[in-house]
Amino acid sequence: MSLAKYLLKDVAPYGGARTTVLLADGVIAAMGPDVSDDDATVVDGRGLVLLPGLVDLHTHLREPGREDAETIRTGTRAAAMGGFTAVHAMANTTPTQDTAGVVEQVWRLGREAGWVDVHPIGAVTVGLEGERLAELGAMADSQAQVRVFSDDGKCVHDPVLMRRALEYVKAFDGVVAQHAQEPRLTENAQMHEGVVSAELGLAGWPAVAEEAIIARDVLLAEHVGSRLHVCHLSTAGSVEIIRWAKSRGIDVTAEVTPHHLILTDELARGYDPTFKVNPPLRTQRDVEAVRAGLADGTIDIVATDHAPHTREDKDCEWAAAAFGMTGLETALSVVQETMVDTGRLTWADVARVLSETPAKIGRVNDHGRPIAVGEPANLVLVDPDVRRVVNPDEQATKSGNSPFRGRELSGCVVATFLRGRATVLGGASCDEDVVVAR
Amino acid sequence: MKHLLSAADLSRTQAVRILDTAGQMAATQAREIKKLPTLRGRTVVNLFFEDSTRTRISFETAAKRLSADVINFSAKGSSVSKGESLKDTALTLQAMGADAVVIRHHASGAPHTLAHSGWTHGAVVNAGDGMHQHPTQALLDAYTLRRHLTGPGDASGRDLAGLRVAIVGDVLHSRVARSNVQLLHTLGADVTLVAPPTLVPVGVDAWPAEVSYDLDATIETKPDAIMMLRVQRERMSSAGGGFFPSPLEYTRGYGLDARRLAAMPEHAIVLHPGPMNRGLEISADAADSPRAVIVEQVANGVAVRMAVLYLLLAGSPASGATTDTNETKVDA
Amino acid sequence: MSSALPDAAQPDEAQPADATVVLGGPEISRALTRIAHEILERNKGGADVVLLGIPTRGLPLARRLAAKLASVEPALDEADLVGSLDVTMYRDDLAHHPTRTIGSTDLPGDGLDGKVVVLVDDVLFSGRTIRAALDAISDLGRPRAVQLAALVDRGHRELPIRADFVGKNLPTSTHERVRVLLEETDGRDAVLIEGGSR
After folding, report:
1. Which of A26, A61, A319, B281 is deepest in the core (most CB within 10 A)?
2. What are B93-96's contacts with CB under 8 Å, separation 24+?
3. Chains C and A in direct contact, meaning 3 or more beta-carbon pairs closer than 8 angstroms
4. CB contact under 8 A, B132 and A201
5. Is residue A366 situated within a structural domain?
6. pLDDT tens digit string along B182-241?
7. Minimal Cα distance from A273: which residue of B?
8. Is the ipTM of this complex over 0.90?
9. Any chain B CB within 8 A of the CB of A193?
10. What is the CATH classification number for the domain harbouring B225?
11. Of A190, A198, A315, the CB nearest to B204
């Protein structure tokens, strides 16, 4: 069965000058104002922005182990709805993604589902226990070709282990992505340590527990000559440390989540665990600082840290609830609302932070490519002018723990293309039979 | 008033009203027949996820003196210890027809979650949630302070304006401290918190209270009352967080002994929410001195809890406002 | 209740347009004087009599009666004659109204045992307040007898309760409202009927 062709008429690549783009045989076949093809399905692109397909460097697909919260199938479908064409699946599954066998299983399930390209992340330590290195080389060599390694959920807190991991991954151009959280300073922590936590009587998660680890890690990376990636950076102090590190020429990259761009710890006041997340929501000052960091390039990318949870894990008192929020289907809207609509990022910048740079960090070479003839057709078409109210019950993700329930956000994804095949068309996900057929 | 979840929710008027009502309840408790028929037919459930015989008995006594039926549910040996969630426990109790749920829980915010969840329909009374609030404790403390320190005669209608209260001890982990700081402030009193720096929360600057690390200096300012908080010995060890090097050093710096008691003004009283660690935060001399009102606090606790149950349960469910008996009687 | 009494109502506000004054100050005074004599007559003197006023307006009425009793029998001590009895916690209709403020119950020094308790209230209507008062009394002591003095009896009893001493019998319809104003609480003495077509 040959692949359908798509003619994207009058679209604006990177929000710039309008043109028409023809997708055929999995690539961008032609671009220009007069391009046409009678066999192609026409997509009316007036008013729409064309971007390279988004790449998420930080997602939890929960399979294997917690299929009650999400599966690779439902999670990647949610990703496609959010405009993503590739996601990196974090390793804190059951069993842990710490062997070639498990990462290959995840990679294969992703391919079979066919919604996005799944790049499994390998655990740094066996079982995420922080005691000894996992077989990073085997995972790198496997069919999954793992390049990003992370114990996310937990911190690689032992400085010697972190040093070894940073050194070891140089052999295959890998990168360690650190979840920065000094465990002793955050024992049983529930929310950001500050005025709100003092009043609510919830154990605090101090900013310094994140900053101290980042400070240590950038110096380690400098010392051993490795690159380092910092997950979900959330505090003003962390932004400053990264800025300083980059000024010294240290090869560090950092990510921020959509929720840390817009939500604060004040939301904990109702004790609604929808807002319980790790790292926690911080103060308005921190929100301002990460926005500024994203705008000036100190923070390189936005990554969702999509963390689905079942209702039982959130429908309870705060202390008993799980940490995490969903985010694949609202990420682009939040970035548009906080950064594009306010004039701090252009659409070209959005392409950089949500597609090009994440692909580069993950060493994914067929995503995050320029929109040009000959490039793989991994693309997303966005309508920036629409406003929609978020309703988690209608989302593709299996879980309903979105912090944006009932909130109106800018923009929506109209179409997503994975190697020239539409995974989302007309704002709705495409029939699975169509998607899977190759 | 539909629930009592936090001292922060009480306005000055509401707080004074509770204290005044407690005064009337206390009067009935001085009679030979202490029981009143007021809440006959109502069911009060004591939902205690944390051990606390004293507070539970206090609420139970309060409910029974008003002729309410009491169901006691404690976590140990119940379905909860087998993993039943707060939600399912609440739904079960609602099925039994609880008009009020008095809840003590180790998680801050659990009463708030219960009250707003729709799992129960009755009034929710917070009997202590984690490190967050213990509003009836603050109310009985305020009642005790009012009785002793606002002058002779009937104290009805009075607040605590101008009184100076020192609260000493582990403020960081104390729901009693949080409730008291807010309620005392609402009632017009000035509060000074005295603790070692490790036991004061980051963010305390936003509280309506002074902070001092020096107990003797604070006593020199002649406060009208001193409230000693319980300090847990476990917090001294490194496993408990190592907040303090040793019990002895704590007592030397922050314990109330006979010497410090003598330095307090003559009219000043000593409070403690109990249970006391005699010899740690309070010496036996201080605890047993005539200026300590600790035993009276317990009796006042029953009256205050009777008042709270009355104000939450006696009126029509839709009531928020109140009537005075001098409003035109519909039927006489 | 010994908490602050409400501000005395302004004379203009106290009498809305459709209110009829059925008793004025002098008539109230005469009625109380007569009731005082009736109490003394019925009980063969004022020894052992305790006038328990039901707040709010029963209390000033009880005090006035005590003053009148003492003026007729100077041997009586006014202070020993009067007390207040708050019945809020014994009412059977609490759940039908917004939460009521509880008033004070103050008994004279000797208590109620063996006494003749005369309950004093401003308006006798359904009788439920008096029923609550009887329950309250039974928890406070064992009087030798309980009698009832009401300034106004407006009929429509729902319980088998009757007044022993009545200031004025006032037939009313249930649509109407009877309001008693007293100098001590409202700035003037009057009994008003509102809401009817008189």
Report:
1. A61
2. B93/B45, B93/B47, B93/B120, B94/B119, B94/B120, B94/B121, B94/B122, B96/B43, B96/B45, B96/B71
3. no
4. yes
5. no
6. 999 999 999 999 999 999 999 999 999 999 999 999 999 999 999 999 998 887 777 778
7. B113
8. no
9. yes
10. 3.40.50.1370
11. A198
